[in-house]
Write a structure and sequence with these properties.
This protein is 79% helix and 0% strand. By secondary structure, it is mainly α.
Length: 329
């Protein structure tokens, strides 16, 4: 404190006031910073510091006035943007959407063609569950991105998700359809399919989606159809769909686990064993699969098979602590 007072610079005196606030003497900090604001009429530092202190320790009602004072004294674009962003956050925290939008509009005027700024605003609104306003902001960002598929497609995906979050499943599906028709959709096929499944689930139309997926032929659609049929309880349809999916993606362990569980639900334990033996072999003795297979052997009264499998794996991987723990169990 003594060193700061000895320096006597504006920065040192502002820092001294911040220390007062940190130590709980908010009134002393206010008094010093208000005095410094009057003395240093060409500096935004006292006002911005007081705004930050009020935001953290004091009264939110005072914050925006001090940010406005700081803006009056700030010419450098990057610093003005930082202050405006702080104002936006304060207004949103207080539920003051019109005021937050006003601060954002000032930012938009400085960067009128900046898609990323519009997208940032949309995401901020979505995070705070201001869904209708978020949809409008996403649409504005999309309008600015026309002509650049690399920029537009990710926005389309986010817009579809936002529509779904807002309870507009039909609107989300329409957005997915528009995305598929637009150039550059291939890298986003998986994300669009996830939205499509969620929207159909909301609408109670998963069976219709399963029928549609059967006509598409790509791997993602084949896998999704198998999982949907499984979810719907169409056991025989799901079995066939899983087998088709596994032929297209033979090393997908999640698919094999799903198929094994379906066989187990149907009481086909021999088929369950076949799938888990393959998983154990292809995973190099993954303890999760080993444990599952051992438990199945136990339930079938085939304890010796479980012991023989574990002995073989321990010979192959003698230093595997996870396998040793499974064996001890």
């Amino acid at each position: 404190r003594g060193e700061l007072e000895a320096l006597g610079t504006l920065e040192a005196r502002v820092l001294r006031a911040r220390l007062d606030a940190e130590e709980g003497d908010l009134e002393a900090a206010r008094t010093k910073l208000e005095s410094l604001d009057r003395e240093a009429a060409d500096s935004a530092l006292p006002a911005r510091t007081l705004a930050a202190i009020e935001r953290r320790f004091g009264e939110l009602g005072r914050v925006t006035a001090w940010y406005d004072r700081a803006l009056e004294r700030t010419k450098e674009p990057a610093r003005r943007e930082a202050i405006l962003r702080e104002k936006v956050a304060i207004h949103l925290d207080r539920g003051e959407l019109d005021e937050a939008r006003g601060a954002m509009e000032e930012l938009f005027r400085t960067r009128p063609r900046d898609v990323s700024l519009r997208l940032e605003w949309a995401r901020e609104l979505a995070t705070r569950h201001r869904r209708d306003e978020a949809l409008t902001a996403y649409e504005e960002a999309l309008a600015l991105s026309r002509g650049d598929a690399r920029v537009a497609m990710p926005i389309r995906v986010e817009l579809a998700r936002a529509r779904l979050a807002a309870g507009d499943a039909e609107g989300a599906l329409a957005e997915v359809e528009r995305a598929h028709r637009a150039p550059g959709s291939a890298p986003f096929r998986g994300a669009l399919l996830e939205i499509e499944i969620a929207a159909h689930r909301t609408l109670g139309r998963l069976d219709a989606l399963a029928n549609s997926l059967a006509t598409r032929g790509d791997v993602e659609s084949t896998v999704a159809r198998a999982k949907i049929l499984d979810e719907l309880g169409d056991d025989e349809g799901a079995l066939l769909a899983y087998e088709v999916a596994i032929r297209k993606r033979p090393r997908d362990r999640d698919l094999r686990v799903a198929l094994a569980r379906l066989h187990a639900r149907l009481g086909r334990l021999d088929r369950v064993i076949d799938e888990y033996r393959r998983l154990v072999r292809e995973s190099g003795g993954d303890p999760t699969f080993v444990r599952e297979l051992a438990l199945i052997y136990e339930r079938m009264g085939r304890r010796r098979d479980a012991e023989a499998m574990l002995a073989e794996l321990l010979r192959a991987f003698p230093r595997s602590a996870p396998l040793a723990r499974v064996n001890a169990e």
